[in-house]
């Protein structure tokens, strides 16, 4: 693997670790909530007849978020590598996207300030769109 390929793959690896971090944090929070009787453990059979504490819901929603738009990021990275179209601008944009998604998860799972979370989400989406524009231009060149 070349240096540029490695530097392009690392933000995707970082995103995978972010996803696992949120997953395990969610599991820990759910276990703790059930243990402290903040939620009836039977709720988790079908996710019915009750509600989770807000702290669990924030992590659950963030975990779901990590399987929505970030999929376009992973696909873009894979296409770039398979088609051998990597360039430094893609590396910078990929890192910017990963950092913004980490920031989004941090805001979502901590203070959950909706306006800040939304701004970071929009910015990360624009960065991802820029990645795809670069990729499309390179494909069509």
TrEMBL record:
Transmembrane segments: 6-28, 66-83, 89-108, 120-140
Source species, domain of life: Bacteria
Gene3D superfamilies: Membrane associated eicosanoid/glutathione metabolism-like domain (1.20.120.550)
GO cellular component, one term: membrane
Matches recorded under InterPro entries: MAPEG-like_dom_sf, Membr-assoc_MAPEG
UniProt keyword annotation of Transmembrane present: yes
Positions in coiled-coil regions: none
Places the protein is found: Membrane
Keywords linked to the UniProt accession: Membrane, Transmembrane, Transmembrane helix
Pfam families hit by this protein: MAPEG
Chief subcellular location: membrane
Designated name of the protein: MAPEG family protein
């Amino acid at each position: 693997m070349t240096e540029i390929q490695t530097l392009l793959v690392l933000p995707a690896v970082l995103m995978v670790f972010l996803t696992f971090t949120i997953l395990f944090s969610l599991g820990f929070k759910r276990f703790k909530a059930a243990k402290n009787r903040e939620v009836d453990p039977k709720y988790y059979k079908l996710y019915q007849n009750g509600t989770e504490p807000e702290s669990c819901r924030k992590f659950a929603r963030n975990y779901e978020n990590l399987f929505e738009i970030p999929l376009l990021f992973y696909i873009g990275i894979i296409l770039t590598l398979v088609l051998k179209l990597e360039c430094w601008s893609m590396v910078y944009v990929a890192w910017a996207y990963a950092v913004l998604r980490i920031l989004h998860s941090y805001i979502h799972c901590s203070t959950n300030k909706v306006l800040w979370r939304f701004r970071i989400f929009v910015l990360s989406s624009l960065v991802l769109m820029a990645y795809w524009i670069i990729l499309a231009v390179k494909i069509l060149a």
